[in-house]
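ok so I'm stuck.
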Amino acid sequence: MNNNSTTDNGRLRLWRGVALVAGVFSLVICSLVIANYIQLQRLDPVNTEVINSLVERLSDHPNDNELRTEIRELDLLARKAYFTNQWQIRFGGYLLLMGIAILMIALQMIRMGSKTDPEVPAGKPFNVLRYQQKTRRWVAISGIWLVLVTLAIAVVTHQEMENKFAKAAIASNAKSNMVIPGEKSSVSEETEQPQEVPAADAEVKVVEKKPEVSKATKEKEENNIIEEKKAVSKPVISKKVFDYPTKAMKVNYPSFRGPGGNGIAYQNNIPTQWDGASGKNILWKTSIPLHGYNSPVIWGDKVFLSGADANNREIYCFNRKTGKVVWTAKADNITDSPAKAPGVTDDTGHAAASVTTDGKRVCAIFSNGDVLAVDMKGKRVWARNLGVPSNHYGHSSSLVMVEDKLIVQYDHRKSAQVMALAVQTGETLWKTERKVKISWASPVVVGTTEGAEVLLSADPFIASYNASTGEELWKLDCMSGEVGPSVAYADGIVFALNEYASLVAIKAGPEPEILWEAEDYLSDVPSPVATEKYLFVATSYGLVVCYDAKTGEQYWEKEFDKGFYASPVLVDGKIYLLDRDGIMHIFKPDNKFVAVSDPSLGEKSVCTPAFSDGHIYIRAGKNLYCIGK
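replied:
not stuck anymore, here's the structure
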């Protein structure tokens, strides 16, 4: 009996120790969370007002390069402060809950292990016991209130940081109107040095003294040559590249950034001269009922757009030749659709993602996760809700089709995934979970020897998926931050970039590898475009850069007055790049900058244009424009 009593006392001492440690640990975490909140009120880690004041100074002194650099560095520090603070709050909350849980378990074990005090007559002993009970009760109540207040402060701090960061993002957008060039790369500086190179047709003779070799070595070399000849003589069977985009897709313009979303259009006779002020080559201009930042999509004689606000979501069909509205399809009465639209920022809105079509169906997705599919006459085929996106700016990944599949990139805070929906019915054909952070990039589909591949960009990796099955084919860790630009693809190379990360050229395949990297000129919104020879990168702060696609050598950089949100498109042997003031910069895809023209629309725009049958279609403000000869 004495042994049992000793064991029980030992267990009680152990649980009292655990309770003491858990209580002190929880108290420390509470103190840190509260201190973090007080510090947030005293010092603004995002420095919104500082960024705004510097932007105002820059507008007065546009040639102050030191000030430009300071703005970019401060913007980077603001983003890092935001992510660090969010991580600290979440991690602190988890630790606090864990500490409280351990404390509660320990207290329960102590209560169960303690002997019940015998009944005592009225008197002083009884009052002492009641005093102890009241003390413990008030300590427990105070502790519970402290924990609740701490958790509330953590939630408020988390929300306040998001609001501060949203303001900083708005300041950053204002900054992007200023031209803030980066420093030249070392490759560029080296290529500026003139070097003497022999002419291509010049005869160059090299005399090399060959070392003497033994007879055995000669026989071995001869045998190797014979084996190589045998290997060469064998027929090489190469896999056929999957036919994507199809001929029908190339004739039309079925998705954001053209067929497959790769920034390449297959149209001819595209105009290079127009003027919005005088109306030159402006064939028509039509008002769009609801706001949106998505780009036009074209099939046959129809142009499609979507628009939305907090209460309404719609798809529009315009006559491509006259601009008249043919029909409007509403995304309403959808099962599981939320009663209230999620919060979005003004520069994203509720209809940022572009629609897509295969000539039979038109599909659109909105900020609340509603997906709507209609036929070419605007009649609803199916509709469903994918779940409300957990996204602090708003959903903006556009849609793309592969055969009978609608590809949706749905990388959000609570659930990151890519999925394929049946175009005819809307049912989920496959869904692949992704261990990535929120991404605002859009999927790009390309045809390879492995079939149709879906290329996605997000923090922390670039990945490829089989469009038929959703199987992950390969991935490579190389991204970070809030990824907005989509990838570009040409000749087996994937090009990806993001501001505060890097520009990478990846040799695609089962064993992907980085061919080259650059860090000087990066984009946070526009996507790049590539050919077999060249890569072209546009930045939101007004710089355009040309690289050798295979080596990364920088050929040229061009500085423009305004920044870019629209992505460059290669069409009709030229690159069309629309700046935020509505000026289209047209230039040759060459290793030297050759300007073609700079026609002005006369209205600001952040949307990538669409091309079809000798015409250009541009969404600007509340209007849709058609430009033609």
